[in-house]
Amino acid sequence: MTAYLDRGREYPVILQAQEASRRTAADLAEVFARSQTTGALIPLSALVSVSETTASPSLNRYDRLPAIEISAALADGFDLGAAIDAVRAAAADTLPPEGAIAFAGQSKEFIDGASGVVLTIVFALVVVYLVLAAQFESFVDPVIILLSSPLAVTGALGAIWLSGQSLNIYTQIGMLLLLGLMAKNGILIVEFANQLRDRGMSVREAALEGSVRRLRPIMMTVLSTILGAAPLVWSSGAGAESRAAIGIVILGGFGFASVLTLFLT
Which of 51, 64, 124, 152 could form a disulfide with 253 if both were Cys (CB 3.0 to 4.6 A apart)? Predict the structure, then answer.
């Protein structure tokens, strides 16, 4: 109704009927409200009606709006992206205009991840390029090294699709690791090719000789990385799905791009 101020502190004033007058819903009929036009007292029974209905014992809210939480599992043959599209189509046909849907859990991660994966990859490439440009003191060599990055991303996306995984925070982490690992292979070839070119070889001869001479260390890196990531794919227990997502990205992207790096770099 109002507030009471006492020594700098404000206390809300709440009017309340006696307990005997507010035990049942029928007691509301004995409450009177004053009319703003005539000033007469009018009983609430003349203005409102009271009825008993069933309701949920608890009311859920999402973003401060009344909400109903619905959980579901994927049916055979459906991936998460197709399920989200089906839910959106069903909601558009069923919900009233004032209704809306919001996703949570893995569905929300999938939606957020799909929109942020491109930005994550671009940011990672920019950072790697700047580091390589400082290391080689050249703006061209980093571009040559990063030519394998699109192959790595293509292989990773293909592995995600074949395994039925989704674009989420864990696959993004795997892609960041993948870009760094692929840059390492390119560094081995470009650095050695530059040394050969300084000794008088042509660019073509230096590139071919560098690829041949660095084949062994590159294959050692590829095999050790694949063998190290394989247990992540077939792991079990708590958190196995997140580890599998990272392992699948590394296996697919690194294995697909490492061989082609020898020909493109």
Answer: 152
Tokens of 106: 């893995």
Q: Which amino acid is at 133?
A: A
Amino acid at 222: V
Say whether 197 sits in a helix, a strand or coil.
helix
Q: pLDDT of 138-154, one tens digit each?
A: 888 888 888 777 778 88
190-194: long-range pairs with CB below 8 Å, 24+: 190/136, 190/141, 190/144, 190/145, 190/265, 191/136, 194/136, 194/141
pLDDT at position 116 is 67
Rounded Cα–Cα distance for residues 194 and 206 (Å): 7
At position 82, the amino acid (one-letter code) is A
CA distances from 200 to 193, 197, 203, 210 (A): 11, 5, 9, 14
Which CATH code fits 106-264?
1.20.1640.10
Q: d(Cα 211, Cα 200) in Å, to the nearest integer?
A: 17
Q: What is the pLDDT of residues 175-229, one digit of tens each?
A: 888 877 777 777 888 888 888 888 888 888 888 888 788 778 888 888 888 888 8
Q: Where are the domains of the chain?
A: 1-53, 56-102, 106-264
pTM above 0.70, yes or no: no
**What is d(CA 36, CA 33) in angstroms, rounded to the nearest whole number?**
9
